[in-house]
Amino acid sequence: DVTETEEKEAQAKQEEQIIKEQELSNLLHEKRYLKALGLAISLDRPHTALMVVKAILRETDGRKHLEENIARLRKDQKEAVLTFLVTWNTNSRNCHEAQAVIETLLKHEAPDSLLQYSGIKPAVESLLPYT
Question: Which residues of 93-115 are buried (b: 16+ CB within 10 A; e: fewer)?
Answer without folding.
Answer: ebbebbbbbbebbeeebeeeeee
